[in-house]
Structures are given as structure tokens and as C-alpha cells.
Design goal:
There is one protein chain. With 772 residues, this protein is mainly beta. 3% of the residues lie in helices and 55% in strands. It contains three helices and 46 strands. The two termini are 49 Å apart.
């Protein structure tokens, strides 16, 4: 018997009342893995021509469920959503998903969800936001920016996902699903031309190979573009974007109960705009070098060597899915190879004698396999259980540091990971309305570190002394989860979830010992996060849906990166950041008041505070210059027990500092996004108009709260026409960043300079595409 009954006419009132009780934020402003079933339904964009919103199905709990019934805060972005926003890769999710920020720094992608992020980009230092493509974990942050030629949907699961997704899902998981082929022959081809000579081609074709038995698909993407930066020094080649990828998928229906699927891919991604020498507000030690040219404005760059970034990636996966009497058994296995080749400036400036540069070659190999069982329902009881194995090797092979031309240091460093885990999660339905989930995951991971640092230059594929082992360490963690969900009306659910995230410890890959020593390098401890979340999800009418959640995080031992000088060479330095508290709220809503109009909005409120971190390493290469728009005297960080406000020529660089009370990096106090699409059939054809607005508050990029991006508002627009005479043809015009903001793509505070790559300025373009 149901305990709650609400008539349809009162549905909106009950939902609103529950929302008020669930999101107590009146005083907030001043405080301020395994692949799911391949039988998943294609997800809609959120509306239909009949004037109602369609149902969304997700797989965040490894089984198909309505999004309203999953006690996790989830945002779903469909292929149509991405097309209407003009998105070609995952970096633009920042403006589409509340609480999400994705940066790209020095060739590495660093996602953040609700303020949980990492700045460590060394071999073996995986992000603490787990990314999956077709159920396969993507470990290397150098391959974290991926192009999207055949995406079906993206699910962003907020909060720790340690039980079902395991390692490195401390702050959440981003799942990307590509299109599955079927008996229907379908395809798409499109060409886009935009500002800065940006040319993009996308193509996709799929259909039956053997009717009813074997199906295949092939997709491709290629983009080439010039740099949008300005060189203010002597001639230096400005490399832009050069990327391509090919993906193939094969599905074999062996029997009605057994399906096999295979995926293969290969390509490369190159975007040197994130590597170019731009000293944030002129903060570079090159200011003290006679004749140096130091950029001080956004998009101005200078250097001696053309920066480069190219990530080669290829791999494949196989999956067997069997529908048995006890449930769905899935076996997934995969191999991924990536190689990140980078040329990075340390001074972010032109230096007459030649300057300092990193030349990095970082191959990475990952093998992983997982066996899952998603049970059928046994009355009110069901469960998910599985085993997983992970084998990963990431290297500097080598990392060379040049100084005024010659190589002065070569670092050969390899960090390996051998991990296995077992997990289980049980669901019990007490009544038609009330259910509970209880689960846990056991993680066992052994890290190994190999290699040496050599003074002088080497370019051999293996270190002169071989891959000698310097150390090993095993980390064990158990991540529990408990959820309680109550269906308070026919279309409204409220929930509470406690979950825990875990990321294993790791070695500092740039601190391997000087040859021939084999002393183990520094080690950072595992980080853990305890999460408490209360939420509501509702579809009170056929034309409106919303979700909201409040959360509290207790974050311990965040793994944080800084820099230091080793014999005059700037190298990375890792450490644990003590304790922090994060709390806030997310809201998302979508309405379709008339069949032609769809409106969506999202708001994220976030308060973060460092509770304990009294030995933070802060990099201030030189005193900022007030004339460059940076006000010295704004930092209140305590270093060596003295307040460092940067007056009178004093500054700190690599000094232990107390940053307790500061705001966490990549944690704006609030963001908001809004999008509206109007689509209507006219005699000429179907016309679609989309406008989007995104606003973010000020964002810091370091624990000292010295370097920040001011608040800004971004506006985008897109207009499309599907001519009645050629119904499969679509013509599109678009504009991005119409407010022409200088937006940081990320920030890289080093010992020698604060390097600041910028996202593209105002951009216009057009697309012609054909679907069949």
C-alpha cells in the first residue's frame, strides 16, 4: 500500500514544498566500471514536437533506470544538446553542466566537479574525476580532451562514485556513450568552418552487415585550425589545432541471450594554444633578464621555441553480455595506448639566450578487465556485484629540460599500477515508495616507481642504467555507500545518499633519484572524501522537470601540486593538502511551455574552505606589477609565520605557507547557465534558434588564492535551417563567446613563471550537414 497519495492538480505544489525543505540555502549567498547494458535506449534531447518532455534513462547504477529514480545527482547531455551548443569536445561541458569545470593546462585535462579536482599531471597521477568512454576508464589526463564524432549522450554523475566505479571517482564520474549500430542503415556527414581558419569534418555511418545478426559502425573526425594568439617577440611558429580520430564498432548477436561487441579506435589530438608562452599578468622571472620580452596581455605570446602538444591515442575493447536466469552477466576487457609529446616553456617569455623548455615524451599503456552481474529482481530485492582488474604504466621517456639550448637534465621515470577490486550493491524495496541501497567496494592497488634523473642530455628510448626500481607501495581502501529513496508522489522522489571517494597514494614521478641512486622518491598519501547529499527529482507535469540537491563534503589529504628548483631546474612537487570542507547546492530544470519552445536552466552554489593546510608550497616567481592589472598586497597567506602581503619587494616562492581559511582552487562560489531553443516548421523548412548564457563567479587557481579569473558572462547563439526541399540537409550558423571574454583555459603556476593559456576569443562559424 502506498503511504503517500497526491492528486495531479497538486503535483506542482507538493514538488515545490519538497524542494524548499530539501534545499535550505536562504543564507548561502553571504557564506558563499564496467560498461552498462548495450540495450540501453537512445536518450532524447528533452522534448518532442507533441509538446511534452520525454523520459530520460540512465545507467549510473549499472542498470537501466529512470533518472528520477536514481538517488544520485546526475546531468544528462544528449547529442542534440551538444549540436545545438556547437560543442565538439568535452571542454565545453563547463558551460552546460552545473557544478562542473573542465580546464586544460599544459596539454593535460583537469575536470572538477563541485570543487573536487587535482593539479597533479605527472605519470601515474590520474584525475580524481573518473572519465569513461563506452564503459572504459580513461586514465591518462593527456588524453582527457576527446573529440565527439558519434556521441549518443554524456552522463555526469556528481559526488563520489567509489562503490560502482572504484578508483579515482573521488568527486564523480563522466560517462560518454557512443552510438550503437542496429538493423537501420543511418549516417551523418558534416563540415564546419569557423574563425581562425578552423575546419572540421565529422562523419558517421552504421547499419547491418548480416541482417539481424551482425551490425557495424564507422565514425571519423578531423579538425585543423590556426592559432588565435599573437606573437609579440621574434618569429616563432604558432601551432594551432590538428586533430583526428577514427572509431569502429561491431555488434554480434550470437543468440537471443548473448551479444558480443568490439570497439577499435585510433587518432591524435593536438592543440598548442594551451602551451604557448603567456605570463599571467607578466609574472615571470624573465622580467629580470635584460632583453627578454614578457607578454602581459591575454593572447599575447612570446618564446624561443614553438610550443607543441600532441597526444597519440589508440586502442580497443571487447564485451560479452549474457542474459541469464539470475541476471545480466557482462565481461569487458580493453587496451589503451597514449603518448603525450609536449614542448613547454618555463619562463612564458622570449629570452635572448634561449630560455628554458620542457621536452616531454610520455607513453602510457593500460589493460583492464571487469566482470559484472546485474541481478534480476527477487521480489523486493536486487543487487549488482563484480570484480575488476587494472594494469597501468605511465612514463617520462624521457622528460628533458633545456637551458639556453642544451639539455641540462633528463628524467626517465615510470610509475606502474596494479589494482584489483571487488564490489557489491544491494537494493531493497520496503514499500512501493520506499527503497534503500547499501554497497561497498574493496580496492587493492600497488604502485611501483622506476627510473633515474641524469644531468646532461639523453634521448634514448630507455634510460642509460635501465628501468631500475626505486620503490613500491600498496594502498588498500574500502568505499561504502548508503542511499534511501522515497517516492513522495507519482512523479516526485526525494533521497539521501552517503558515499565515500578514494584515490590511492602515488609517487612523485619527477623526483626520481639522481643516477645511480635507487632511493624511493616522495610519496603522497591517499585522498578520501565523505559525502552527504539530499536531493529531489520531479516531473510534476508532462512539460516540466527539475532536480535539486544539497551536499556536504569532508575532504581529507587532497593531492596537490606545486613546484621547486632542483639544482636550478624547475620541477614539480606534490604534497597532501590537509583537510577541507565543501558544501553547496545544485539545481537543474527544463520546461516546454509550447511544442516549439524548450527552456533549460542550471545553478550551482558552492562554498569551500581549507580547514587545515599549514605547509602549502606557494609559487610566486616575482612580484606582480601593479601596472599590469594585478594588485600586490592582496595576498594574506602566512608563510614561515609571517604575513606575506607582497609589499616592499618581498615575496615567497616555494616557501611553506599556512593557507588555512582559503578558498579551494577551481571552486567558483556560483555558476549559472541558461539555454532556450525555438524550433518550428515553416514553408521554407524547419527553423531552429538556440541561445545560451553562462555566468561564473571569480575562480582561484591556487591554494594561496593569489591567481584568479574574474567573474564573466558568456553568450552563445546558433540558428539552423532544414530546408523543406532537402529534408535531410541542415544549414547552421553560430557564434561563441559573443561577449569576447578573455577566459583562462587553466593556470600553471611554476617556480619560474605563471603560465596562462586562454580559451578562444569571440568566434563565428557555419556548418552544413546531411543525415540519412
Amino acid at each position: 500500500m502506498k503511504r503517500h497519495s497526491v492528486s495531479g492538480r497538486n503535483e506542482l505544489l507538493v514538488s515545490a514544498a519538497a524542494l524548499i525543505g530539501c534545499v535550505p540555502i536562504a543564507n548561502f549567498a553571504h557564506a558563499q566500471s564496467a560498461q552498462p547494458s548495450s540495450r540501453s535506449a537512445a536518450l532524447p534531447s528533452g522534448g518532442t514536437s507533441e509538446g511534452y518532455l520525454t523520459e530520460i534513462v540512465v545507467t549510473a547504477q549499472k542498470r537501466q533506470e529512470k533518472i528520477q529514480e536514481v538517488p544520485i545527482s546526475i546531468t544528462v547531455v544528449t547529442a542534440q544538446d551538444l549540436d545545438r551548443a556547437g560543442v565538439t569536445n568535452n571542454l565545453d561541458l563547463t558551460q552546460m553542466v552545473p557544478g562542473v569545470k573542465i580546464d586544460r593546462v599544459a596539454g593535460f585535462t583537469n575536470p572538477s566537479i563541485r570543487g573536487v579536482s587535482t593539479f597533479i599531471n605527472l605519470p601515474g597521477a590520474d584525475p580524481n574525476i573518473a572519465t569513461y568512454i563506452d564503459g572504459i576508464y580513461q586514465s591518462n589526463p593527456a588524453a582527457g580532451t576527446f573529440d565527439l564524432p558519434d556521441v549518443q549522450r554524456i552522463e555526469v554523475d556528481k559526488g563520489p562514485q567509489g562503490t560502482l566505479f572504484g578508483r579515482n571517482a573521488t568527486g564523480g564520474a563522466i560517462q560518454v556513450f557512443t552510438l550503437d549500430p542496429s538493423d537501420n542503415f543511418t549516417g551523418h556527414v558534416g563540415f564546419t568552418y569557423a574563425s581562425f581558419n578552423d575546419k572540421t569534418v565529422k562523419a558517421y555511418v552504421a547499419g547491418p552487415i548480416i541482417e539481424g545478426k551482425v551490425f557495424g559502425s564507422l565514425s571519423g573526425f578531423e579538425e585543423k585550425a590556426d592559432s588565435y594568439d599573437r606573437n609579440i617577440g621574434p618569429y616563432m611558429q604558432l601551432n594551432g589545432i590538428s586533430s583526428h580520430i577514427i572509431r569502429a564498432k561491431l555488434l554480434v548477436k550470437v543468440t537471443d541471450d548473448l551479444t558480443l561487441s568490439f570497439i577499435g579506435f585510433g587518432g591524435s589530438h593536438s592543440n598548442a594554444n594551451g602551451q604557448l608562452g603567456n605570463a599571467f599578468n607578466g609574472i615571470s622571472q624573465a622580467q629580470n633578464i635584460p632583453g627578454a620580452i614578457v607578454p602581459t596581455r591575454p593572447y599575447d605570446v612570446a618564446g624561443n621555441v614553438a610550443p607543441e602538444q600532441r597526444t597519440i591515442l589508440n586502442g580497443g575493447s571487447g564485451k560479452a553480455e549474457y542474459y541469464s536466469g539470475i541476471g545480466i552477466v557482462t565481461l569487458t576487457t580493453s587496451y589503451n595506448y597514449t603518448n603525450a609529446r609536449l614542448v613547454l616553456p618555463t619562463f612564458a617569455a622570449y629570452v635572448p639566450a634561449g630560455g628554458q623548455y620542457y621536452h616531454q615524451n610520455s607513453p602510457n599503456q593500460t589493460y583492464q578487465t571487469e566482470l559484472d552481474l546485474v541481478s534480476r529482481k527477487y521480489g523486493p530485492f536486487s543487487y549488482v556485484t563484480g570484480l575488476a582488474y587494472y594494469n597501468d604504466s605511465q612514463t617520462f621517456d624521457p622528460l628533458n629540460v633545456t637551458s639556453n639550448g642544451p639539455t641540462v637534465v633528463s628524467i626517465y621515470s615510470k610509475q606502474t599500477s596494479h589494482a584489483y577490486s571487488a564490489f557489491g550493491e544491494a537494493t531493497y524495496q520496503f514499500t512501493d515508495d520506499l527503497s534503500a541501497i547499501l554497497g561497498a567496494r574493496y580496492n587493492h592497488e600497488t604502485r611501483g616507481v622506476y627510473g633515474n634523473l641524469y644531468f646532461g642530455g639523453f634521448f634514448t628510448p630507455d634510460p642509460p642504467n635501465g628501468w631500475v626500481q626505486d620503490g613500491a607501495k600498496t594502498f588498500v581502501g574500502i568505499t561504502p555507500r548508503f542511499s534511501l529513496r522515497d517516492k513522495i508522489s507519482a512523479n516526485t522522489n526525494v533521497y539521501f545518499t552517503y558515499s565515500q571517494g578514494f584515490k590511492s597514494g602515488l609517487f612523485n614521478a619527477s623526483s626520481v633519484p639522481v643516477a645511480p641512486s635507487t632511493k624511493a622518491p616522495e610519496l603522497v598519501d591517499p585522498e578520501k572524501l565523505d559525502s552527504y547529499e539530499i536531493g529531489i527529482k520531479s516531473t510534476p507535469a508532462s512539460w516540466v522537470s527539475f532536480s535539486a540537491a544539497t551536499f556536504l563534503y569532508k575532504y581529507k589529504n587532497q593531492q596537490e601540486a606545486s613546484g621547486r628548483l632542483v639544482n636550478g631546474v624547475p620541477l614539480a612537487f606534490d604534497q597532501n593538502a590537509g583537510k577541507s570542507t565543501l558544501y553547496g547546492a545544485d539545481f537543474e530544470g527544463k520546461v516546454k511551455p509550447v511544442p516549439e519552445l524548450t527552456l533549460s536552466a542550471g545553478i550551482a552554489l558552492l562554498h569551500t574552505r581549507v580547514d587545515e593546510f599549514n605547509n602549502a608550497t606557494i609559487n610566486v616567481p616575482i612580484l606582480p606589477v601593479a601596472a599590469n592589472g594585478y594588485n600586490p598586497g592582496t595576498a594574506s597567506t602566512l608563510c614561515n609565520g609571517q604575513s606575506q602581503t607582497l609589499p616592499n619587494g618581498t615575496h615567497v616562492n616555494g616557501t611553506p605557507c599556512d593557507v588555512t581559511g582559503n578558498q579551494l582552487p577551481r571552486s567558483p562560489k556560483w555558476t549559472a547557465n541558461f539555454a532556450g531553443t525555438y524550433a518550428k516548421d515553416f514553408a521554407i523548412g524547419n527553423v531552429s534558434l538556440t541561445a545560451s548564457v553562462f555566468h561564473t563567479a571569480k575562480t582561484f587557481y591556487d591554494y594561496g588564492n593569489l591567481y584568479s579569473q574574474d567573474q564573466y558572462t558568456d553568450v552563445g547563439f546558433q540558428a539552423s535551417l532544414q530546408p523543406a526541399a532537402v529534408p535531410h540537409l541542415t544549414l547552421t550558423a553560430f557564434g561563441k563567446n559573443l561577449t569576447n571574454n578573455a577566459v583562462l583555459m587553466g593556470l600553471f603556476p611554476q617556480v619560474t613563471a605563471v603560465n596562462a593559456p586562454y580559451a578562444p576569443p569571440r568566434t563565428f562559424g557555419g556548418t552544413i550537414s546531411y543525415d540519412f
